[in-house]
Amino acid sequence: MGLWSYLGRVNQIWRPVAPPAPETPEATPNLGEKIREVVNDKAFENAYESAAPFVMASLGSWPGYWLYRGLDYHTHRAHIPLRIYINQTFYQAKILQFVIILAGTFTVITNQRRAR
User: Fold this and answer.
1) Which of 53, 42, 31 is nearest to 104 (CA)?
2) Where are the domains of the chain?
């Protein structure tokens, strides 16, 4: 007596009316085809065209900023150690690159809203 005897009786009483239908496997999505559809879309082309200058500026800003900071180190070497100066340059260059990409994203979103 107890819970197990009750569950045993429930299993004897309850039987499914029909056998369960076999599960059909879902087709694997073709990600290459979906990416091709997105890239060949006119809206994507317009967005890419408006973002292209910002992408190029972002690619040039990283080495350009490092070059600028490297040539400017002589003015700071008396009071900032080289290791700290390099860390500062790294984070400042990352922030500069992030701001450029953020401006490009903002421009693309603004242009897309105007196009609708």
Assistant:
1) 53
2) 52-116
Sorted by sequence, the CB contacts under 8 Å of residue 71 that are 6+ apart come out as none
Burial class of residue 100 in the structure, from the number of CB atoms within 10 Å of its CB (0-12 exposed, 13-18 middle, 19+ buried) = buried
- pLDDT per residue over 84-105, tens digit each? 999 999 999 999 999 998 998 8
| Calpha distance 66→78 (Å, rounded) | 19
Give 101's contacts (C-beta < 8 A, 6+ positions apart): 54, 55, 58
pTM of the shown model: 0.58
